[in-house]
Amino acid sequence: MKDRVLFFVFCIISLSLSDNAIASAPSRNEVIKLFTDANEQYLQAAKLIAANDNKAASQKLEEAALQYETMLTQGFKNGQIYYNLANTYYRQGSLGKAVVNYRRAQRLMPRNDEIDANLRLVKNSTEDKELSQGTPKAIQRIFFWFFLLNQNELTIVAISLYVILMILLCLMIILKYPWLKRILIGFSAGLSIAIVSLGIKHYEEHGVNQGVIITEKCQVRYGPGEEYEPKFEIHSGAECIVEGEKDDWYRVYVNIVVKQDTGSKAGVEEKVSNDIRRGWLQKKCVDII
Amino acid sequence: MKRFVTISIFIMIVIIVGYREKTFAEDIRLSAAVDRNILTINDQLQLTLTIHGTQDTLPPSFPNIDGFTLLYGPKISAETRIVNNNVSVSKGYTYVLQPHANGKFTIGPSTVEYKGKTYSSQPVTVEVTHAKTTTEAQQPDLDKLIFVELSTDKNEAYLYEQVILSFKFYFQKRLPISDIDYVPPATKNFMEEKLGDQRQYEEVRDGIMYNVLELRSALFPIVSGDLAISQATIKCNLILQQRRNRQNTSSDNFFDDSFFDDFFNRGQKIYPVEKTTRSIVLKVKPLPEQGKPKYFRGAVGTFNMEVSTKSQQVKTGDPLTLSMSLYGEGNIQTISEPVLVLNNENDFKLYPAEAVTQITNREETIRGRKVFDKVIEPQKATLKSTPAIVFSFFDPGEGQYKTITKEPIPIVVESGEQEMPIQLTQSPVNMASKQQAQLITQDILPIMANLSSLRNQRDTIFKNPILLACLSIPAITVLASFFITQQKKRLQTDVEYARKRRAHGAAKKKLAFVKSVLSGDSPAEFYNSLSRAMADYLADKCNVSAASATGDSISHLLRHQEVNEDIIAEITHFINDLDYRRFSKDAGTGEEMRHSLDLAEQLIAKLERQLS
Question: CA-to-CA distance for B162 and B396, rounded, in angstroms?
Answer without folding.
Answer: 9
